[in-house]
Fold each of these.
Amino acid sequence: MEKDGKNKTSGTTGATKEGVVMNRRDLLKTSLGIGAVAAAGAFGLHLTGSKVEAAPLRQLPKKWDEEIDVVIVGSGFAGLAAAAEASAAGAKTVILEKMPTYGGNSIINGGVYASWDDEYHLRQKLNLGNDSVDQHKADTLKGGDFYGFPELVEILAKGATPALNWMIKDGGLKIRQTVTRAGGHSAYRTHTCIEGVGRGYTEAIKKIAEGKGAKVRLGTEVTWIWRKDVNSPVAGVEIKTPKGKKNIKIKKALILASGGFSRDIKMRAAFNPGIVPEFNCTNHPGATGEMLRFAQSIGADSLQLAFIQLYPFAEPETGILDTPAVYPFNGVGYGLVYVSKKGKRFVNELERRDVCSFAQIKLGDKPTYSIFNEEMVTKMGGTKEEVEKGIKKGRFIKAETIAELAGKLKIPADALEDTIKKHNQYIKDGKDPECNKPMTKSMIPLDKGPFYGIAQWPAVHHTMGGLRIDKDARVIDIWGEPIPRLYAAGEVTGGVHGSNRLGSNAIPDCVVFGRIAGANAAKEK
Amino acid sequence: MTRTFVNTIVVTLFFLLVLSGGDARAAAKGSASKQSCAACHSEFSSLLPKAHPPVTGKDVTACTKCHAPDAKVTAKPKPYSARLHLSHTQPGAEVDCLACHTWKPGKSLGVKGTKANLGVLSKEGMEETKKIFASWSSSRYLDAHHGKKNVTCSGCHEGKVPEQGDSVENARCLACHGDEEKLAKKTEPKDFPDRNPHKSHLGTVNCTVCHSAHKASKTYCLDCHTKFNMKIPFGEGPQAKPAAGAKAK
């Protein structure tokens, strides 16, 4: 198994059921054994975990129902970006989406995008300090405890800006005229789309992809990857449609863009027992790990599957990451403060998501709150309308004074007043002796109302580990060689974010590597 | 696209009205003579409009020799309609399909005495189709609601007999149920206008994600937003909601 350098889950308790996913050593053994058998006959590789483990040898289909140049699994950021590039290069491209709606987790994503620059040079115009590709790369590597592969992280950091501008110019993406500094980032580089939700990006990329002729097939689940033996390219996929099972022959390449496995309770606990079933989850129900297992079963290598991220600021009851739940993430660069139910700060708000999450869990007193004021709203990429809607739904609590807000949140008023007063002073002093937060000039003291509070609690959010890929987005097998005609991009891959993904790095990861995968897939002969 | 059978004025309306009575039930009991209309209908004049010329014959060809089945609704005189199924597929009073249809399993389905080709129907497909017809004529679901409004298979499934797994395109639904904006306005909740299933954060979704014709409809939103109070017409359990005022344009 991969090195598990950090036990991030100490402090949580709870038993886990026996995992169903085979470990690497088992996989290696089976692969070698079956590889020899399969190479001798016309059998397809069949090694998988879970239910299909006991399946008999499956013969490759004698005839194919259909032939497609580039098949992409998943219609989120990565899949759509891959489809856009593959079809732009002239390949007949089809996205297979198992859910009845497109977009997976991407369409419900919080809509934040890290990029050192943009079409409008917003950071420079708003006088928010310096940034560069190198700085973005360094933050990302550090934020993941250096488990991320520098050559992959560099591609993300370098590709983020051109990809953002591509969506703006070719896809009609509209972004809000502000940039925020989010946890773990050392610069103001987090952009937000007008919609304030991932749909802004998915619609833009879908528009580009469909404009180039790519098709999305909804309700179409991949149930097998066909590969004759461990020396052969990927041959095709078996799919389940409302009209029954079918086999598609792949002429150029298969791209896996199927997302993570945060909703696969057994799988996530199998790799990280601290991620107990009781945790809420921000993901859509389709975020399960079967494509990862199918890829493993044909010899694909995977890594760092124990690294599973909690989103620190989800809606405490349901775990949903709604529009208000993005505010605690976006506001910290402008002075938003996190407090416990006792009215005390418990973490440096500019810390990474894992730190913020486990600081809350350690408190053991659900929920915690973000406190901010009116002046911060538009600067942090929010809008007045969003705040009004959030108030109506009971998500944001509004008050004219800190004491009144404390009363409404059922926090001791004197404690909250004291906390805010001290924090205001830290902003003035440019120093935070309490939590050691790197204070910036852009932070706003909470001395003028109206004030707002919002409840928050961690929920399972992102699986950093996944399939091993190289710089060309080719999937690497357990012997270190690329699997011919197999690519992967986005959350299904591992090795980009290391042990902890920085917030707003997911979309650039997906779009940048999706584009690479799509362009390379189309070049296959 | 607006060519639905709602708008089709059909000669068989009078058949429907009369056949929903006891005659059809009697027919179901007599097995040997099922293949003939005569088992239930001794004559046709009482089923027809007053001005209709007299009709003779023992099966559907009595009608189809003048009224050709025509999905395009251009036939003259007025085309023969699939609405005749409604009274003949009521559970417990089903008439044998082959009373009117010609069928070579896995090859073709037609109408006696005509050249109509309604598509290919396998043995399994025939069984499925019978079930669907029974549902369409009598279920608590969306199909029976359409049946009551005289919308037949082709009202949703254009052209040929639907195959297993066939779905319905949004445009087909919207042809009768108005454009998306108007529809969204109708279902906009007063308390939280953005919790509108027809204008959600998922953008444009297929109608069939929530609305099923031949089984209970189900609000997709509730898969994630478990605490939302949302109801859907022709749903099951707590999701159920009477389709009050749910009128097609």
Amino acid sequence: MGSANPVEDRLLTARFPGTAEGVREQIQVVRDRLAHDPDDSDRAEDVLIVLGEVLNNIVEHAVPDAADPWIEVEIRRDTPGLRVETRDPGRPLPPALLSGASTPSVEGEVADLPEGGFGWFIIHSLAHDMIYERQEGTNRLMFSLL
Amino acid sequence: MDIDSKLTDDVLCLTVQESRIDAAGAVAFKEKIRSLVTDFSGRVVIDMHKVDFLDSSGLGALVAVMKMLDGGRRLELARCGTIVRKVLMLTRMDSVFELHETVPSGVGSGQDAA
């Protein structure tokens, strides 16, 4: 089924400003692009959720001080699922974040509930086969949605 | 951030008129709701039916809103879409908020407010 031609299997390639507004617009672009595949609505939702977290992390932690804070996203069909790659020119990703995350505790008093720390837990809950590379000052993060 | 508000008896229903609660809008969402719930002591229901995207910043904003409610009140969320429900379940926050399939009866949705 899956074609060997990487160009043919490419669903989306985009470059956009590494800002919260840029991420918001890009999530909408990805949603519109994946909406053509009605059989995959569940996976499309997972892509939006994970990509939202990954891109917002880039905006908040990798590129906030970059002179030109761009982000690139590529989504390809894979067998099985979808393969997603993000690239940015920001600070390196701390390796510990790749090895998993625990969910913040939701027990106890309302006043003690966490208001953050969910992002990497959500990413690891849904994404598979995560690979991170840094080459010539560019971060590359790749992962699959099955 | 556009949020409609309707008070029925002692239940305040807030209808989010935006399609997302995300990192770009989380602070505005919190501040808008703060202005709507200040000095109110009854139940607060947020009608989420127009929200088709929630990220972890938006989730954090919902937690922050619940902390604005004193007296141990739970924040109630009605008509959550599939992405919102998935994010709540993954983080187990579905056990923290009170979820409703429909806007609780007797509570007017801000949707039909004039």
Amino acid sequence: MSGLERGGIVTTGRPEELLRGSLPFLSVLLLIGIDLAPLPSPAPTALSPLLCLSAIFYWTVHRPDLLGNTLVLIATVVLDATAGLPLGLTATALFVTRLLLLAPPRFFAGRSFLVLWACFSLAVTVLMTLRWLLASVYFQHLFAFRPVAFELLLTIAAYPLVSLGMARLHPYLPKVAHAAPRG
Amino acid sequence: MKFFSFERLTVLGAAWRAMGERPVLVVCLGLALVVLLLGKLEVKAVHKAADMLGDQVVPLVVLVREPVAWSRDVGEKVGALFAVHAENERLRAENRRLLEWQAQAVRLGVENRSLRTMLDMPEPAPAADWVSARIVADSASPFVHTRLIDIGRSADIAPGMAVMTPAGMIGRVIAVGDRSARILLVTDLNSKVPVIVERSGDQALLTGDNSAEPKLEFLPLNPRFGIGDRVMTSGRGGVLPAGLMIGEISRIEGSRVAVRPAVDWHAVDFVAVLRQAPLPPPASERDGLPFEWREPASALSDLREGALSFDLAPAPAGGG
């Protein structure tokens, strides 16, 4: 095969291949757009699930070769910039969570959906708590935890729906040649 | 191989990945931390980057927003069908009330003009020019209360301008990109607006605390206001115009006085940004101007009535 190996994916370097390989990243960007869409709410800021976190977890588990840390960094910076949050807030919380809960890809192989959901619940709880702590330090104000907890519960509840949507993308993704490292 | 090609990108990507997972993760964490710290240190480049990213993301957010807004509208319309009779009655009552107010406003306007003439008072500042904008993104977090709108520097928007809804002021512009701007809501932790209580004339500072009801601070020693009194911008500091409706006092618990914004958060889709009229140059400098100075309000009315016209003949070609 004349194509090059890109982190385990056999790719010919054609734009079409690149586009197929970018689907997970594009799906995360799309969910960021949905997360930020203004929703009707009696309060100034509607609390809603952070769907993009579900997508990031999903692709980290199922196709880590297509959504490496660099793309996650870009996506979370886009989220922070659009939401008006300090740039790097979500990324810092997310990467610290990854460092704390780093599990090899084989840990997730063959696990049932319920186990993955439980893993996501744990990861997102750590992430949102860290994000709340970081925001409190950054703004020098102890924010109430209740809205964060509500946002967390919504995010956990929305995971099955997001994973169902992401699973539909698998037929369009490039084939995996062998187990790939993340990066 | 060209300098920028898919093959080269692929090779670079492979080299980056070859570092292994943990080192790349640590590098990314370091980058995120550095950006976070630079933002905290108020480094301008970080804020500019955020504004620029906001500009780039607006089309994506608008694209996603449309189906969401459409489904919401359909839901609201179906709901409205069931409540059409009650809504009709409510609108009739409101119309009657507004007609009474209109008559009173006209009478007060005439009285105000005659009193100003008798006291030889200067004309009030010209009304601010405004431009409509659509809200395209929420802050989606409990830490900041901001909104992203779809107009920016290209529409002459600048930081500090007041942002209004039909019910009252919602916030002010804090950051501007070319095609987008960020509004800080009056409920945000960092929002501070000089206000006046309409009935008592007490001045205070409306301070957001990320709750739905911001509080009044720096109150006079013996305030005379009560629950239900209306709160408006005082215009102190010169950043915001005076008299913009904000809300009414909803609770007084000891030293905490809460204000409920008049804004119907449920229906905030479009807003108006008040572009303040430019301050006139001092009279002593007007003679030296290369054109005849006109008050913005009078120039605008002349333009509407056709008394002021522009020569739109094409400029002579060549030159330079």
Amino acid sequence: MLTVHGSRLKLCDGVPRRSLLKIGALGLGGLNLPQLLKAESAAGVGASHKSVIMIFLAGGPPHQDMVDLKPQAPVEYRGEFSPIQTNVAGIDVCEHLPLLAQRMDRLAVIRTLVGSEGAHSAFQCMHGHPQLNQPPGGWPCFAAAVSKLQGPVNLEVPAAVSLQPKIGGAFWSDPGQGGFAGMRHAPFSANAPGSNDMVLTHLSQQTLRHRQTLLGQMDSLRRQLDTPDVIDGMDAFYQQAFEILTSGKLVKALDVEMEDPALRARYGRGSKEPAGYGDAGWLRNEDFLVARRLVEAGARVVTLSFGRWDWHGQPHGTNFDNARDHLPALDQALSALLDDLKERGLDRDTSVVVWGEFGRTPKINNKGGRDHWPQVGCALLAGGGIRTGQVIGETNALAEYPTKRPVHFQEIFATLYHNLGLDIDRATIDDLTGRPQYLIDHAKYQPLPELV
Amino acid sequence: MTPDPILTLRHENAAYAVAFSSDGRLLASGSLDKSIKIWELPSGNEKFQLKGHGEAICTVVFQNGDSTLLSASLDKTLRTWDLASGTLKSTMSGHAAYLTCMAPSPKNTIAVSGAHDKDLILWDLATARQVATLRGHSDIVSSVAFSPDGKFVASGGHDFLIRIWDIASQTQVREIGPLPKPIQGVAFSPDGANIATAEESPVIRLWNFASGKLERTFEEHKGYVKTLAFSPSGRHLASGGSDSVVLIREVSSGRSVHILQGHRNTIYGLAWSSDQSRLASAAFDRTVCVWDTRLGS
């Protein structure tokens, strides 16, 4: 259990200054309140707290074995699973998603996700842009852009939080970058090495205040230098680090031990061991619960990585072995999250998106696996006020390519920005050359009209 | 009859391999989590773990009066472990791709391994050195078994063939097939009279080893069969696969005498205790189950 100790503790000056700096280096949302007020006012959001929980299925989930089953396809295509009816007439999903099937009225299924770069990378799902040919400073990730434009809801919890653990495959553990929005808007990586530094076990709040003053003096000195926006605002950086350390609100949000055991059981526990071959994130259901707690505490965007979905087949289990392992876990955790958000009245303000880099090959390979298939993939959306209980898009008989309504990654991002109250036709962030950059290619991609 | 498992033991990832010690007091299991766990029986308490393999463990075998464990891993190595100290004794490497199957000879003097490099390698366990490479398969080697007299090895491959190798001459002497699907499992009956084979289908085939003729087929599984194990007496054949069910059938009648349901994913490994009272199954659901096979018998 994580605990921030208050002044009742004995004073002990055993922690070097670099510990506090290390907290800052984890990445914290800025305090750009004027921008926040301006953006929210422009969008008519007012003081409400809109948020997004993004669940990244690292490796590329098999669309045809989850939400676009083709039972009439030849055996080398259709796979081992059968479709089951959902609570929305005419929509079927995989037999290993029975709980979500009963919540289909609260989900929107995208069966025709296109625009994948085809690379094993969290970048596209986290940033919404291709990795190639980025503007100067690099694209900020979705969470960082939201942090930049809307700022934190409160001083104790960063606007952008990532639950991605550090894992072997660095391309999957990328929590998203601050890019030209600035390092201070990069997601706070709650499960990164060093995150235990949030615990003040040997430092009193009084000592911490003295150090904050010292840091403030250093920051004032540094501000006299000519520094670009990317590293500017360290005062805000330290200010929020201080607020986080002293309030304990973030630490409490991250601590599922404080949650009702019955509710924890509904989510399931999962494991903190790397999933699959050992080079990917964990299959930890409790991250879904932590995400809800973070949103409730004030986070605007929470991202998490769930499992390893890159199922090429033997000798690491067939696509279907792995699906029987991962799908029930996703089914339980996501269903619990949807129920929990609804029961707390957070569902209309909190958008949930579930997706990966791409889909998987329609034809099963000779190792019982499915390989990469950037031509089409799938996504699940819920909450945030969107119209649910529907499927968008249709693929051909073998789930190879869209035949109706292809949906681009950026259309999903446009929808999420819309749900957060950001106007993608107006909101911009300056890159390092000072050129304003739109959040997405808004001339081509708009919020999905079927959903908003 | 569908008894519950008497023990359900857990790994952090899929369980691929399982073996009983000769006295039935220990169980070893190997997993995609790269660990080998040694369990005490009948309690099911974890005694210790053997760590060092860099990839999933595909086979574990007790040896030398249960003082040694022989393991094989996708990391292309075989390793021997001293069970008194829990330390690594030797490492054998030679394959060029994932090592997927291994079997020791009946006298535990040599072992054979098969791999994604399409090769079989014979190993001298006393010296931990490679004796020979057996080449012939044109695709992944998925399963190997020694004949009870130690003179032959049967290997199954994704080339749809079962190849029979003479150990003395280190040559292929016969082949069975091609079968309709890639081979997943091979097992010799304890009397050496039969070979059972599993392919990527629900069909189990029982072959006469001497003649190479198909004697009978069993088709009761609802998914493909991944693993086979004859009971020490040879009266029963256990099978498991993608339907998550372990079937124990009487070989003579072909009748299933036990349907063991408890796993939730594909079964990858099976092992009988030497007194035949227990069967252990390792599955992709991250569990190893121990079953009382005397129930209803």
